[in-house]
Write a structure and sequence with these properties.
It is built from 13 helices and 26 strands. It has helices at residues 2-27, 40-51, 117-125, 170-176, 190-201, 264-267, 301-309, 316-319, 337-345, 390-400, 477-480, 500-516, 579-588; strands at residues 29-38, 57-62, 70-75, 83-85, 89-94, 106-114, 136-140, 179-180, 183-186, 207-209, 219-221, 236-237, 243-244, 270-284, 298-299, 328-331, 361-362, 365-366, 372-374, 384-387, 406-411, 425-430, 487-494, 520-521, 527-529, 576-578.
Length: 600
């Protein structure tokens, strides 16, 4: 009888602790203060910033969703249940009054999916048939019971060395699952993203006006991805058989697919700038090569444009020597922020007026996919331009092609630049201007601004990484002086008013770049792109102002009464302007917009 009493007491105790555990899990209330999708240029930096915030400290990353797990941003406008966009993800959260594994009380949750700039904008601006904006975040992670025993994150963590993922608890999953995306991470402004989408649906090769000031002399061409169904295009496909969905969106008025009006907090979106970042032009080649593209150190503005459009295809078109190797050029997808920054800064600039899509039409529709077009008019073997989707595939293609001459591009970051074999790769200056270092090649450690002493100098064109100690020398001196042409501001587009999660992440990211040197923080930014309107898209209500730019405290254009026109309009490929000069212009001429691109 005494044994039964003890057994009963033990059972009651077990039930009590189980109930207490469930109660604690039930009491935990996670609040999603940031749900974003978009640019790979911001993915790592925002994740590292999120992991270090005072209201987080716990994080989980996944490159690819394992079996039984769903990680997607769902556009519900077409089909059932909708169109899923998948990519890597990081999630960060606070402990509340508990722990990372079992947060208790109230805690904040941040989440970012690595998709693409225009896709991120589309996931922010889309409006479903019920009039609700934003892609639906789908996060289903099995094995989480009472906040304990969930799915482990990646090892190594996607946030890099020194980071160790924890198991994600059910309370964090619940705070994100079926919630709407309300932030877009993007390399280009929403106006540029909308133009990129509109261009996809125009007939292939048909003229489409981009610059409002030169209607007849500066037109680009449509890309022919339309299907005949409004707002629904054919997929983009790359050489790795990766697909990119093409669905339209609007940044003002009504959604093009559902005809539902943009909600006021989306129609009055805010744009917050994180910093500025250059694109690197990278060449790879065989380890034993001593000629061909290996001999290149610089590529002229015009020559780069000729390779991107497919007119040039020989290595000595760059080097000028006697060796003639065919060059494979890798190009991004037209809805990429990286693509659009490169497109309108070089080959489709006011000076060149061509495109990376040259020769990619089949009548009024896009040509066979994936894009794989002989260049130099087929006059030399192994010379072609080929499509890759995403920064990861661009880097994979460049590294895999190190047995032959190739050329590609990506936004600089310490992560993107890591792992390139210096015997088989190099970055090139453009028109003699280095995008990341004070000067190209020798004597970097013996006097470059901001450089620490290192084990040895970098070889000319060697991509800096933490292995060789080169990161302290990444200063962006020439970009910041306005001399490097291929760069963009990195931005977060969000609902109005700007959520606290956006403000927190931007503040956290500024401290990272002082050591990692992934971008120019706002406090050090000295150059800016002039802006312009897209009248052809019916965006007549938007100014083309450079006023409340991100800029530094005391931006003169933001002072009353000159602050009536906030930053607006496109700026991809806009001319480089001095921030302080822009500010002085505002005051000297009582102009609330600042310098725009009337002459581009």
């Amino acid at each position: 009888m005494k044994f039964m009493k003890y057994l009963f007491a033990f059972a009651v105790a077990i039930a009590f602790f189980a109930t207490a555990n469930v109660a604690r899990a039930a009491d935990a209330v996670g609040t999603a203060v940031y749900i974003g999708t978009g640019s790979s240029a911001l993915f790592l930096e925002l994740g590292q910033a999120a992991a270090a915030l005072s209201d987080t400290g716990c994080y989980w990353t996944k490159k690819t969703a394992p079996s039984g797990t769903t990680i997607a941003a769902r556009d519900t406008r077409v089909g059932s249940p909708g169109t899923d966009e998948t990519g890597a993800i990081w999630i960060a959260w606070g402990k509340g009054s508990g722990s990372c594994a079992t947060p208790a009380g109230s805690f904040n949750v941040y989440s970012q999916m690595n998709l693409d700039s225009v896709l991120g904008d589309r996931c922010f601006f889309m409006v479903d048939s019920g009039g609700v904006a934003g892609c639906t975040q789908i996060i289903t992670v099995p094995g989480s019971v009472g906040g304990v025993g969930g799915t482990a994150g990646d090892s190594p963590s996607l946030l890099g060395s020194g980071y160790t993922d924890t198991i994600i608890p059910s309370g964090v999953v619940a705070a994100l699952n079926n919630q709407r995306v309300f932030v877009a991470a993007t390399d280009i402004r929403p106006e540029d993203a909308k133009f990129a989408s509109a261009r996809m649906f125009a007939a292939c090769g048909a003229p489409i006006s981009r610059n409002p000031y030169l209607f007849t002399s500066y037109q680009t061409t449509g890309l022919g991805y339309g299907t005949g169904t409004t707002g629904v295009g054919v997929d983009i496909v790359d050489i790795f058989a990766k697909h990119f969905h093409v669905l339209d969106f609007n940044i003002t008025g009504n959604d093009p697919i559902t005809a539902k009006a943009l909600p006021s907090n989306v129609a009055n979106y805010t744009v917050s700038t994180v910093g500025a970042q250059p694109i690197l032009v990278v060449a790879t080649y065989a380890a034993s090569a001593t000629t061909g593209i290996q001999a290149a150190t610089d590529i002229s503005f015009d020559t780069l444009a000729e390779f991107l459009m497919g007119a040039y295809g020989r290595s000595n078109d760059i080097t000028g020597n006697t060796t003639t190797n065919g060059v494979t050029v890798y190009e991004r997808e037209p809805l990429s922020g990286t693509y659009n920054t490169m497109e309108y800064s070089t080959v489709n600039s006011n000076e060149i007026k061509n495109s990376q899509e040259l020769f990619n039409c089949s009548g009024s529709s896009v040509g066979p996919q994936p894009m794989n077009i002989p260049t130099a008019f087929g006059a030399i073997p192994n010379a072609s331009k080929q499509r890759v989707i995403g920064t990861g595939n661009m880097i994979t293609a460049l590294k895999a092609h190190a047995n032959g001459d190739s050329l590609g591009y990506f936004f600089w970051s310490a992560a993107n630049g890591s792992g390139f074999d210096s015997t088989q790769s190099k970055y090139l200056t453009v028109a003699g201007v280095d995008p990341i270092l004070d000067r190209y090649g020798s004597a970097l450690y013996s006097g470059g601004t901001g450089c620490a002493s290192g084990p040895s100098d970098l070889a000319p064109g060697q991509i800096p990484d933490s292995v060789n100690g080169g990161l302290p020398c990444v200063t962006f001196k020439n970009l910041n002086a306005g001399d490097y042409p291929i760069w963009s501001a990195l931005r977060l587009v969000s609902i109005s008013p700007t959520p606290a999660g956006v403000t927190n992440l931007i503040a956290g990211a500024q401290t990272l770049s002082s050591t990692q040197n992934d971008f120019i923080p706002l406090s050090r930014l000295k150059t800016w792109h002039a802006h312009f309107n897209f009248y052809g898209l019916g965006l007549l209500g938007l100014s083309n102002g450079n006023t409340v730019n991100p800029l530094t405290p005391g931006d003169l254009c933001s002072l009353a009464p000159l602050s009536s026109n906030p930053e607006a309009g496109g700026d991809a490929g806009g001319s480089n302007v001095s921030i302080i000069g822009n500010n002085h212009f505002c005051v000297d001429f009582s102009d609330g917009e600042g310098r725009d691109d009337h002459n581009n």
